[in-house]
């Protein structure tokens, strides 16, 4: 009987010890992890960071206008500020000096891009220039854009398109017998010029749903989705219809670009080679198809890459341009003395001619100043496309850790341009 009791007690003691071990051991591991993390964080000279909540990080502080929130926070924490969007460390850069270090001095280190699910859906798996990861593919498509699409000679070859669309807009204003919606006109002319340069013809009021598609595309691409920063909330994108809406718009745009490309392939101009130095106003689709056919860059591009590049041209060349035009006219109407001075300059330069030519613009220094001041006060893109650091580096004395898949660098262009250093 006594041996039975001893055996029972020993089993109970062993069970108690086991339970105690498996209770205390995880707690000790957690404590060691916290101490280690605290030690390395204190040893590292990280940028200042506001207090954050567990899981959420600083997401609760962003509000409806993140660029304004970041502006307020940067006044308190400085031009280099470390936030956490969920578990994602985000470095916010908001001074010209710090931006110069990121975008010029250490440009190679910060050349990568963080990947987002919305990029995969709407930008062909990030096969465009703006969102694709740094590497050989990015270098090749960027070189293709700079040398073949946006060279000085190529831009000059579209002068006739710009002049024709400007004359068309002025004719519309002259014929109008009622008030003119200036915002609508600015949007239409930038869209029409971009369409003619990129696709070969206008897709405005005659083009059906394309302008509306691009508007929704821009809205979705600029949306903030919490699943990118808190992965276990990724299911919300399916529940609230965000992903299905993005897929629907992406499908419509893909069908549209497919139709445009097929029209160009079936056209007579497809058999003709397009030279990089050609002064003919071939549209971007012509050029890209010719490059694909002749393998002119020593790097094969497929149909998906062509569509990704076309999307970039519209994303970068429509809303940004018309927003600047709209704000420039708004500021001129607010400041009548500036308006009068600019009108005097235009009349003095143009003289008795009925139209302003691109040669006249060279001599309009005050006009250039007005445009630059408009860009400074009303930035078309308040937050630039985020970057990702590829290795540990020091910026302005702070230690910036290598960007893992989550690390981001956000440049607040509003603060960069509103800084007193530019005034």
Q: How are the elements arranged and paired?
A:
Layout: H1 2-43, H2 66-77, E1 80-85, E2 88-93, H3 96-105, H4 117-122, H5 136-149, H6 152-157, H7 159-175, H8 182-199, H9 210-221, H10 236-239, H11 242-266, H12 284-294, H13 303-317, H14 319-334, H15 336-350, H16 358-361, H17 365-377, E3 393-395, E4 398-400, E5 408-411, H18 413-418
Parallel strand pairs: 2-5
Antiparallel strand pairs: 1-2, 3-4
Helix pairs in contact: 7-8, 8-13, 8-14, 9-11, 14-17
| CATH architecture designation of the largest domain | Orthogonal Bundle
Instruction: Write down the domain tally.
Output: 4
Please state the average pLDDT score. Answer: 80
Biggest sheet layout: 3 strands, mixed
Strand order of the largest sheet: 1-2-5
How many strands?
5
Query: What structural class is derived from the secondary structure elements?
Result: mainly alpha
Gyration radius, in Å: 28 Å
Number of helices: 18
CATH topology of the largest domain: Cytochrome p450
How far is it from the N-terminal to the C-terminal residue, by CA?
95 Å
Strand content: 5-15%
Helix content: 55-70%
Which CATH top level class of the largest domain fits?
Mainly Alpha
In CATH, the homologous superfamily of the largest domain goes by the name: Cytochrome P450
Shape estimate: globular
Stretches where pLDDT falls below 50 for ≥5 residues?
none
Q: State the order of secondary-structure elements, H for helix, E for strand.
A: HHEEHHHHHHHHHHHHHHHEEEH
């Amino acid at each position: 009987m006594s041996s039975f009791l001893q055996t029972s007690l020993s089993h109970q003691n062993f069970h108690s010890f086991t339970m105690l071990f498996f209770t205390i051991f995880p707690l000790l591991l957690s404590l060691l992890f916290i101490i280690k993390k605290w030690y390395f964080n204190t040893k590292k000279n990280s940028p200042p960071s506001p207090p954050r909540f567990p899981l959420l990080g600083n997401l609760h502080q962003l509000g409806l206008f993140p660029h304004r929130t970041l502006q307020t926070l940067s006044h308190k924490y400085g031009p280099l500020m470390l936030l956490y969007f969920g578990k994602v460390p985000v470095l916010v850069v908001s001074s010209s000096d710090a931006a110069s270090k990121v975008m010029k001095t250490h440009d190679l280190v910060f050349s990568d891009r963080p990947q987002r699910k919305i990029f995969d859906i709407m930008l062909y798996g990030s096969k465009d220039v703006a969102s694709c990861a740094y590497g050989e593919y990015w270098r090749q498509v960027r070189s293709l854009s700079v040398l073949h699409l946006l060279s000085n000679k190529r831009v000059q070859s579209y002068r006739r398109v710009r002049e024709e669309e400007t004359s068309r807009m002025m004719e519309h204003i002259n014929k109008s017998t009622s008030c003119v919606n200036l915002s609508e006109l600015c949007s239409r002319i930038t869209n029409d010029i971009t369409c003619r340069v990129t696709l070969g013809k206008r897709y405005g009021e005659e083009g059906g749903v394309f302008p509306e598609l691009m508007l929704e595309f821009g809205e979705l691409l600029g949306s903030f989705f919490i699943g990118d920063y808190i992965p276990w909330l990724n299911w919300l994108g399916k529940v609230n219809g965000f992903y299905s809406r993005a897929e629907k718009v992406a499908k419509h745009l893909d069908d549209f670009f497919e139709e445009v490309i097929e029209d160009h392939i079936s056209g007579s101009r497809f058999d003709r080679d397009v030279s990089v130095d050609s002064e003919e106003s071939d549209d971007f689709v012509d050029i890209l198809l010719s490059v694909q056919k002749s393998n002119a860059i020593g790097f094969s591009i497929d149909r998906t890459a062509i569509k990704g590049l076309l999307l970039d041209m519209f994303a970068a060349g429509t809303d940004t341009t018309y927003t600047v035009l709209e704000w420039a006219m708004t500021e001129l109407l607010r400041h009548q003395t500036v308006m009068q001075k600019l009108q005097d300059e235009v009349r003095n330069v143009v003289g008795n001619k009925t139209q302003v030519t691109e040669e006249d613009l060279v001599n309009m220094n005050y006009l250039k100043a007005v445009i630059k001041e408009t860009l400074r006060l009303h930035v078309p893109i308040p937050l630039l496309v985020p970057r990702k650091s590829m290795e540990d580096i020091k910026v302005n004395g702070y230690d910036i850790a290598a960007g893992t898949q989550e690390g981001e660098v956000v440049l607040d262009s509003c603060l960069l341009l509103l800084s007193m250093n530019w005034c």
